Amino acid sequence: MRDFWNTALRDLGKIGVAYILITVGTWLVFMILIPQLIMFDYSLRPMLPLRELGGPKDVWTLKNYMVFFSNRLHMAIFFKTIWSSLIVTVVALVICYPIAFYLAKVARGAKVGLLMLGLIIPYWINELLRLFAWQIILADLGILNQLLIFLGIIVDPINFRMGNGAVILGMTYAYILFMVFPIYNVMESLDSNQLDAARDLGSSWLRIHYKIVVPHAKPGIAVGCTMTFMLAAGTVAAPQLLGSPSSFWFTQVINTNFECANWNLGAAYATVLMLLCVMFMFIMLKIFKVGLKELTQ
Amino acid sequence: MGQDVELLDVSMRFGEFYAARNINVHIQAGEFFSFLGPSGCGKTTLLRLISGFMDPSEGQIKIGGKDMRGIGSNIRPTAMIFQNLALFPLMTVENNIGFGLEVRGVPKAKRKKKVEELIELVDLYGTGDRMVNELSGGQMQRVAIARALAVNPAVLLLDEPLSALDLRLRSQMRAELRNIQRRTGVTFIYITHDQTEALTMSDRVGVMSIGKLEQVATPDVIYNNPETIFVASFVGESNIIQGDIISIDGDYAVLKTTSGSFFCKNPQHMGQGETATIFIRPETVFLAKEPNADNVLTCRTKNLSFEGAYAVVTLTTEQGQLLTMRLNNDGTVPRIEEGENIKVRFSRENAFLLKNGGTPIA
C-alpha cells in the first residue's frame, strides 16, 4: 500500500494525486454511494403521509420486501425478466462471438475499420430512437410485415409485438457493442500463431475455438455477458416501446411504483434488482473462473 | 520416418510483391535442410507454404511425392515449430505435448505413454504437470519440439526457433536438434538468418536473397565455392576486389584491378574483357614471404585486433583497396604494428571470380 502511494506521488505529484482523489472521491460518494444508500434507506421505511414522516411510525422495517415476496405476479415478472435477460445475453453472445473473432483474427486493414464503423454508427443515435425504429419495422403495418406480404410469404400481418420476441430482439440489437468489444479486446491479444499451431497439429476449427480461443477469451466473455445482462435487466425503454402487456418487465413494475408515488416500495424493488445483477456478476465470474482483477483488464 | 519435399517452380505473390519467385529444390527424406537468408527474404513464406497455411500462387509442392495443393495444414504430414514457439499458455506441459494426439483421438492411456516418451526424448523430466509459462526459455523450446514430434510428422518445419535463446543455450540446442533429427529420421526444414546455425546443423543449405533461391549445396561448398556474389558476401566474410579480366588460362583468369593484376579461379568461365569481382576469405590471406611471387599486395596496417586464437588485421593498399587478413596465432606470426607497411599474398586457389550483378550484402 505504501509502495502504491509512493509510486503515485512520484508519477503524478501532490497536485495530481489530490486531483484524482477529489474527483474520483466526489464521483464515488455523491454519484454512487449516497444515492444508493438513500435508496436503500427508502426501501426500509414504510410509505407515510408527509406529516407522519419522522414520527413514531417512521421506523425501519422489511415490510416493503415482504410485499414483493408475497406478490405472486411481481415475483413472476421478476423471474420472467431474469429469464428473458438471460435469453438476450445468450443470443447476443452467439451473435457477437463470431463478429469479435472475425474482427480480431480474420479481418485485415480497412475491413476492420469499416466493420467497426458499422457497429458504432447506430450508437450515434439515441437509444430511444433506435427502439422507435424497431417499432416501425415490427409494427402491424410495418416494413417487415409489408415485405413478407409482398413476397407472398404471409397473407395477414403478424403481430410481432406479442410476447417477448420484439423486446428480446430490440435489446440484443441495442447491446451488441457491449458484448462485441470486451470479447474483441481479449481475442486481439491472442497470439495468432497459437491458432496456426493448433491447426498444424491437426485440430478442427471447432476444437481450436473450444480449446484455445474460448479459454483465452473467457474474461471478455464474462464481462460482455455481465454487461449485457445488467443492461437488459435494468432497461425500461425497450419493454416500454417494443413490449406488449404480456412482456411486462420488472423495471416497469419499479417504474410504476415510483409513478404511483410509492417510492419506498419502488426502492425495495430496485434494491432486489440490483442484488440480482451483483449476484449474476459473481456467478459469471465463477462460471468462467475469472477473478475480479482479470475482469478489469 | 521422413518424407521428401519437392518445390517445383514455386512462387508466392502478395499483390504485386513476390515473396518467393520460381523456387526449385528437392529436399531428401531424412535430410536436415536449412534455408538461410536475411530477414524479409521470403524464407518464412516458404515454410508456411510447405506447412499448408497457404497455397503457392504458382508452382507445385510435393511431400512424399504427393501434390499438396488444397490440402490443409491440419492434414499434411508436417509439423511446425514457430519462432515464438506458440505454446498454449493455458495448458500444462503434458497437455501441450499431447494436444496433437488428443486431436487425433488417441486414447488417454496411449497418449500418456507417448507424452512420457517425448518428455524423455527432449529431456524434460518432472515438468509434465507444470504450466508452460513457469518454464525457462530452453525448457519451453523443448516443449515446442516435443509437441511437434508428438504427431509423428514426416517433415518438421522450424522457423528460427533458437533466436530467442542466449548464446550458450543456443549452441547446446543446436547439437540437440541435430541429435534428435538423427535419432528420429524426420526430415527437418530449418529457417534461419544465422549462418553459423545453418552451416553447423545442416546436411544442405539453401541460401536465399530477396524471394530468390541463390544456391543449394552442402555447407562446405556454400562456404568454399559460392556461386553468386550474394552467397559469397552473405555467408562468411570476404575481401572483395573489382576489376576487368585481361586474360584466361584454363580454369584460371587474370583480373586487372587498380591495386594490380591477380590470378584467380574462374569457376563461371567468364571471358576476356568482362568485369568481375574477386572474393578472398580473410583466413586465406597470409603474410608474403617471397615478395616477387604472384598475388602479392603492399599494404599499410590500419587496425589490428587480437582475439586470442587469431588476430584480425585490417589493411589498405596505396590505391585505397581495403583488405582483411585473419592470422592464426600459431607462434610463427611476427609482431605487426598499426601503421606498418607489410606485404600480403593469397593463393590463386583461394581467390575466385564471380560475375557482377545481383544484390551483394557487404
Describe the protein's architecture and organization.
The complex is a heterodimer of chains A (297) and B (362). Chain A is mostly helical and 297 residues long. Chain A has one domain (71-295): MetI-like fold (Orthogonal Bundle). Helix content of chain A is 75%, strand content 0%. Chain A is built from 13 helices and no strands. In chain A, α3 (72-106) packs parallel to α7 (165-188). Chain A is globular, with a radius of gyration of 24 Å. The two termini of chain A are 20 Å apart. In chain A, 30% of the residues are buried. In chain B, the strands form four sheets. Chain B has a six-stranded mixed β-sheet with strand order 6-7-8-3-9-10, with helices on both faces. Chain B has a five-stranded antiparallel β-sheet with strand order 13-12-11-14-20. In chain B, strands 15-19-16-17-18 form a five-stranded antiparallel β-sheet, with no helix packed on it. In chain B, α5 (167-184) links the parallel β7 (155-159) and β8. Chain B contains eight helices and 20 strands. Chain B has helices at 43-51, 93-103, 108-121, 137-149, 167-184, 195-201, 219-224, 229-234, and strands spanning 5-14, 17-27, 32-36, 58-63, 66-67, 78-81, 155-159, 187-192, 204-209, 212-217, 239-249, 252-257, 260-265, 275-280, 285-287, 296-306, 310-317, 322-328, 341-346, 351-355. Chain B is elongated. In chain B, 23% of the residues lie in helices and 36% in strands. Chain B folds into two domains: 5-231, P-loop containing nucleotide triphosphate hydrolases (Rossmann fold); 237-355, Beta Barrel (OB fold (Dihydrolipoamide Acetyltransferase, E2P)), CATH 2.40.50. Chain B is α+β, with helices and mostly antiparallel strands and 362 residues long. Chain A binds chain B through residues 191, 193-194, 196-204, 207, 211-212, 215-216, and chain B through 51-53, 72-75, 78-80, 82-84, 86-88, 90, 99-100, 103-104, 147-148, 150-151.
